[in-house]
Amino acid sequence: MSELLYYDLKDVAGVAPSLATQVCRELGRRIVGGVVREGALIDDENKLCERFGVSKSVVREAVKLLVAKGLLEVRRGSGTRVRRRASWSLLDDDVLAWHLSVEPRPGFLNQLLEVRQVFEPSAAAWAAKSATKDQIDEIRAAQRKMENAEEIQDYVVADALFHRAVLRAANNEVLMAMEGVIFSALLSSIRLTNADPRDNKRSIPLHQKVLAAIEAQDADAAEAAMKEHLEGTRERLAQFTADESEGK
Amino acid sequence: MSELLYYDLKDVAGVAPSLATQVCRELGRRIVGGVVREGALIDDENKLCERFGVSKSVVREAVKLLVAKGLLEVRRGSGTRVRRRASWSLLDDDVLAWHLSVEPRPGFLNQLLEVRQVFEPSAAAWAAKSATKDQIDEIRAAQRKMENAEEIQDYVVADALFHRAVLRAANNEVLMAMEGVIFSALLSSIRLTNADPRDNKRSIPLHQKVLAAIEAQDADAAEAAMKEHLEGTRERLAQFTADESEGK
DNA sequence: ATGATACTAAACATCAGATGTTTCAATTGT
DNA sequence: ACAATTGAAACATCTGATGTTTAGTATCAT
User: What residue ranges do the domains of chain B occupy?
Assistant: First the structure.
């Protein structure tokens, strides 16, 4: 396992994840990255032990993690195979992260953004109707952070926090489970645009509009403002992917 | 483990799930059902082994499954604790299923339906724009099945298949990952309404409307029709939960 | 008393290897 | 050809030993 051992955003600084987690990530990335195709058998437990230099327990736990995420299917006697893509838990944070770490495929990012365009405006509307004072404060705090950010990273993180705060304020647990989609989409945009300073702070007024509508408990306005904001984001994404393919 | 061993919808008929899966389900249901509270430590590995009558490997694999679903967090030395509800993967099929198997809490069902109301109309619109011939055939087949269903179960299953087919026809992978939400919501409605025969086939004309719009590639009409259908569903749910609380 | 240090028990992490069960395919007998 | 048998491959489970981390407790110097 010496070749393994990389860290992830989720790891608390300096704390190494367990071997099982590491093996899981390695396998997960390979599957998501298409190194092993859908429907194909993966190496058997012994081979995996050998390859990663770990014991069978570790491999089994790693495989179980991937089963829980819908990526693998194990069958006694016949082996363990990659499930078809449609069965993957694409909304799982890890699975999303693996996607972005191996494949900044524009099509996928686009689909991610399309989905955001569907549910975030509704979230904003619901937030306008049902947000508590604390929840509005959380949104406002993120907004301020964006305005005061000096480094581009701070700005992007504040951006993500803003959207998450809106999602939370909608007070719908199921919707809240889509938090990961926002962060992933955000991160991928960053990667694509390479945090282009030209875009810096461009979306602040639009965020402001969303916040104001929620504060005023105006659901329609909140929905419209969020929709407008995301459309802008999407146009920029389209712009960048166009540049990308042109450059090549 | 003798007391364990129950089957689930996902199990192929007659095939017993592995012990790890059984333990995972048992623990999952208890957590989701609130038997162990958020933030609380669960029994340690040895206790769990004793309680379920299985070996440590089995317990560890079960726990790993739950970690992957965001329900548990294990820390070396200190123990394994239940994560706060906000961290649970509420969109995971199993987690959803456990919710419904232990707690037909109307609030949750309502939230589930709210989310469906957000993304299914869009799915219908996208389907109108991008569905292939095969995908439309799949929708049509489900529609026919609903019309021809004689048993109430067949009707409900066909209903779910219809919605799934629309979701698939939208050709957005991320959206498709929400398939589980549809089935769960459907199942919960059944449980609540106890498959009331009065409601039988009531929604066929609305489904027909959605199908026709998709066939005609009319995105706006498809979106509107799906929205109308789901609003009806929601009203019925509200009706039943009102009856429920009144009855008590 | 107080603060820092050292010890210890609890709990998870990993390993090794034995044994059972299921599946699939090859073999064999007709 | 066809059907039944057999055996290898692969996962499932168990056992028990040993390592590591954490949190709390006891101890000791000041």
Answer: 19-87, 104-247
Nearest to B175 among A57, A93, A115 (CB): A115
The DSSP symbol for B73 reads E
CA-to-CA dists, residue B234 to A4, B179, B186, angstroms: 50, 18, 11
Residue B45 CB-density burial (10 A; 0-12 exposed, 13-18 middle, 19+ buried): middle
For the stretch A169-206, pLDDT in tens is: 999 999 999 888 887 777 777 666 655 655 657 778 88
The mean pLDDT of B188-202, rounded to a whole number, is: 63
Residues A59-103 have pLDDT tens digits of 988 998 999 999 999 988 889 999 999 889 999 988 988 888 886
Domain B19-87 has CATH 1.10.10.10: yes
What tokens appear for B116 in the block? 């469906």
Q: Which residue of A has its CA nearest to B69?
A: A68
Q: Is it the case that residue A157 has pLDDT exceeding 50?
A: yes
Cβ neighbourhood burial of A44 (10 Å; 0-12, 13-18, 19+)? exposed
B172 and A122 within 8 Å at the Cβ level: the answer is no
* The pLDDT value given to residue A119: 92
- Angstrom CA distances, B125 to A76, A108, A109, A112, A184, stand at 42, 19, 20, 17, 25
Rounded distance, CA B179 to CA B160, Å? Answer: 9
The tokens for B247 are: 């009855």
Helix axes A133-148 and A152-169, enclosed angle (nearest 10):
160
Residue A191 — left, alpha, or beta (φ > 0 → left; ψ -120 to 50 → alpha)? alpha
Q: What is the pLDDT of residue A237?
A: 78
Degrees to nearest 5, angle at CA B176 with B212 and B136: 25
Q: Identify whether the C-beta of residue B190 lies closer than 8 Å to the C-beta of residue B200.
A: no
Contact B114, B41 (CB under 8 A): no
Confirm whether the ipTM is greater than 0.90: no
Task: Tell me the average pLDDT of chain A.
Answer: 84
Token pair of A52 as six digits:
């990663």
**Terminal-to-terminal C-alpha distance of chain B:** 37
Q: Which CATH superfamily is domain B104-247 in?
A: GntR ligand-binding domain-like (1.20.120.530)
How many whole angstroms separate alpha carbon B88 and alpha carbon A177?
7
Which residues have CB atoms below 7 Å from chain D, the nucleic strand?
A: A 15, 44-46, 56-57, 60, 74-80; B 1, 18-20, 53-58, 61, 75-78
Report which of residues A38 and A103 the model is more confident about.
A38
- Nearest nucleotide over every DNA/RNA strand to the A15 CA, judged by C1': D21
